[in-house]
Amino acid sequence: MTYSKLPYHRLENKADLDVLLEDIGDARIVMLGEASHGTSEYYSWRTAISKRLIEEKGFTFIAVEGDWPDCYQINKFIRGYCKPGTKVSDVLKHFNRWPTWMWGNWEVAALVEWLKENNDRPNTNKIGFYGLDVYSLWDSLNQIMKYLEKKDGHAVKAAKEAFKCFEPYSSDPQEYARAVAYVSEDCEDEVISMLQELGKREQGEPANPEAVFDAEQNALVAVNAERYYKAMVRGGGNSWNVRDGHMMETLNRLLEFHGPDSKAIIWEHNTHVGDARFTDMARAGMVNIGQLAREQYGRENVYLAGFGSYEGSVIAGDSWGAPMKKMEVPPARKGSWEDWLHNLGATDKLLLSRELREISEVKQQIDHRAIGVVYDPNREKYGNYVPTIIPERYDAFLYLDETEALRPFIVKTKEKEPPEMYPANE
Q1: pTM for the complete prediction?
Q2: CB neighbour list of residue 147: distance below 8 Å, 6 or more residues apart
Q3: Superkingdom of the source (predicted)?
Q4: Which DSSP category does 300 fall into?
Q5: 401 contacts: CB under 8 Å, gap ≥ 6
């Protein structure tokens, strides 16, 4: 392949992000991707961008591809709701669902410490931190019951009915999904009833609006997780759409909760952030949060930034639930987007889509690497790449020529995990 010259900006330090901040402009939603869930530089660069968005553009909260109950523990910590003496390591130990390293790592710890320091300063905007994902069915149900322990009325009754419905499945979402996949008798009515009851707020402003929001969000997770697990067992792309639809619904709720001037930073894998309409996902009828946000808020209000690298190392597992380990990431496939950028010079680069759109080669689909929590470097010739029209899928792309594996905490994994059908390529 003959590589055309591409316009790009150097990416060596935080000052080099000036051009990105200018390009973001007045966007209300900024989504920051990653090409793997186990690369240190993706986390550190997203942290650097997020800090500047908060300090210079008044962004309100960060929402990530993580479970709501666990991420809400971070939110409580950085807002000063935890008991005195709580450390960041105590908080990140809540991330005990495989893959534990996604949020239980030192790179995230550094971000959390900075967010707490920011929030502790007087006369600063208090930043929130939340999880967008749908997997925490049982944890969310438990959090609802804890919230309702000192309350009574219809909401408590609805929550107990939902628990009663799920009890035969021993807290195993996979067992539940398989049992009800092809029959109409399931727990959907119970969890929807619970959500409706929790949504009926008491007269006047509650003493802690965020605690009420937390309970309502856990109920929403229960509703959509129930739908997700059923759709997953039935097969096809619908479970993906249920999941990203839930993420978009959660983002909308967070923006509404934080008011009309709120601004969101999203951390997710490229497969969620990059507009699905400009990949082969579209042919399979799949959508993602990047696409949905552009459709709902307009492209001028949503900024999508992808990430990628040429070679290095990564944290991943050989199979679902397998022990995490550091793996070598081989040089990118010949003819891929990452190979192209490497051949322009082995330097880190920032590319803006508005500067790429007149180049004919990037108007066509090109292979773009995506490493999941399950990874086999030997399959680089056969998989791990998503055909992509780069300047339409993203508004900007941050290319890091050589990257290192992130530094995880060692966290004991829960026994009950989401089923093996969890998408391994994101």
Answers
A1: 0.88
A2: 211, 214, 215, 218
A3: Bacteria
A4: G
A5: 309, 310, 311, 341, 342, 346, 347, 348
